[in-house]
Amino acid sequence: MTTDEILDELERRFPNAHCELLHRNVFELIVAVVLSAQTTDEAVNKITPALFEAFPTPQALANADIKEIEQKIRRIGLYRNKARSIQALAKAIAEKNGEVPSAMNELTALAGVGRKTANVVRSVWFDIPSFAVDTHVERIAKRLGLAKVYDNVETVEEKLKRKIKRERWNRAHHLFIFFGRYSCTARNPQCEGCAFASFCKKDKLAAYKEQQKIKSL
Fold first, then answer.
1. Helix (H) or strand (E) segment spanning residue 138
2. How far apart are CA 91 and CA 148, in angstroms?
3. Of 107, 159, 167, whose CA–CA distance to 133 is shortest?
4. Nearest to 133 by CA among 152, 150, 148
5. Cα 105 to chain center, whole Å?
6. Span 129-160, pLDDT tens digits
7. What architecture is the 26-124 domain classified under in CATH?
8. Cα–Cα–Cα angle for 3, 200, 204, nearest 5°?
9. C-alpha–C-alpha distance, residues 69 and 88, integer Å
10. Residue 55 CB-density burial (10 A; 0-12 exposed, 13-18 middle, 19+ buried)
11. CA angle (182 as vertex; 177, 185 as ends), nearest 5
């Protein structure tokens, strides 16, 4: 099955695939993405409305008492570290007159912003062809044989961008996430009737992860 055929199948299955992080502007989006690390979008969406009501601008968040920020986000994991991260990010944005840049090098220069976060912002808000690789995208890419089981995140991104047409990058990112989140889950994936079952590398990926786990002991 070609990459176009894979994406066409995913389009049929998830025609409404989209960024599920609630946001009204690019500042809210970038903060939400930082908060979503090792946390579900659903959990982030429960805390961000109150957070942004209290601190609606980069300047407001930058000047806030850190304890107040912690209190607003305490229901998600690593909330103390994330409070410091988003405040440092807000300060960096405030120093740029409140403008969130679109260039990769400028985004990753902001406090707390890595390549994945930058790619999400470029893709979702600025509609710049990008391919953010989170845990769902990495898992799907490896299970579908679009990357090797041992590839790191950067290599997975490079391979996906090479194998998928540039004009489909932004859409493919959401399709992979929806497939990984609602069907091809990390545990108990819905394999029965899956169009990709004949070439899925799920077992190979699981064996590799188990091998790495043993090596780390």
1. helix 135-143
2. 39
3. 159
4. 152
5. 18
6. 999 999 999 999 999 999 999 999 999 999 99
7. Orthogonal Bundle (1.10)
8. 125
9. 12
10. buried
11. 80
Active centre residues (catalytic):
116, 134
**Residue 198 has what DSSP assignment?**
G
CATH 1.10.340.30 domain residues, the chain: 26-124
The contacts of residue 105 (CB under 8 Å, 6+ apart) are none
Which pair of tokens denotes residue 149?
């089981």
Positions of CATH 1.10.1670.10 in the chain: 3-16+132-215
C-alpha 141/C-alpha 143 separation (Å) is 6
* Both structure tokens of 166: 């540039």
Q: Are 173 and 7 in contact (CB under 8 A)?
A: no
* Of residues 131, 104, 132, 97, the one with CA closest to residue 27: 97
- Domain 3-16+132-215 fold is Endonuclease Iii, domain 2 (1.10.1670)
Closest CA to 180 of 4, 20, 2: 20
Cβ neighbours for 142, distance < 8 A, ≥ 6 positions apart: 148, 149, 151, 156, 201, 205
What's the average model confidence in pLDDT over 90-114?
95
Looking at residue 100, the DSSP 8-state letter turns out to be P
Which of 150, 118, 140 is closest to 199 using CA atoms?
140
> How many Å apart are CA 106 and CA 136, to the nearest integer?
26
> pTM (2 decimals)?
0.93
- Residue 216 has a pLDDT of 82
